[in-house]
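Trying the structure run again after the queue cleared.
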Amino acid sequence: MSAAYAVKPGSITHAAASHTQASHAQASYSRATPPTTHLRLTRRGRAVFTTLAAVPLVLGAIVITVNGGMAAAEGTGGIGAAAFDYVTIEAGQSLWQLAESVAPAQDPRDVIADIVNLNQLSSEAVQPGQRLALPADY
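Done. Tokens:
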């Protein structure tokens, strides 16, 4: 048996055109607005991201601290321990007398200032039995 269909002239092209226009409308709509996704971080996710961000900062601080300490140690390595001559102050002896005996060609005021600075004295007064370091220049 054969089935017969009645088709009006132009109805096929019209239906195909409307179907094509609908598919173009859907395609242009989907291109114009991409689907939106919402990223939600859990407490664990925030902790992971925070840790990942903090690790380089902590490592950088450690490197700076370690290298800074090494630079300070290297800077003082070239300075040798200075050998000083020591003098014990006798009863009745003053810094002026000590300066004249240690450096007779120098101005006693300069020698006294150097002795006070080297020994970190608060004043020029000395006590019998006090042990003082003498600058290496004298």
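The chain has a mean pLDDT of 78. Worth checking whether this holds up in the mutant runs.
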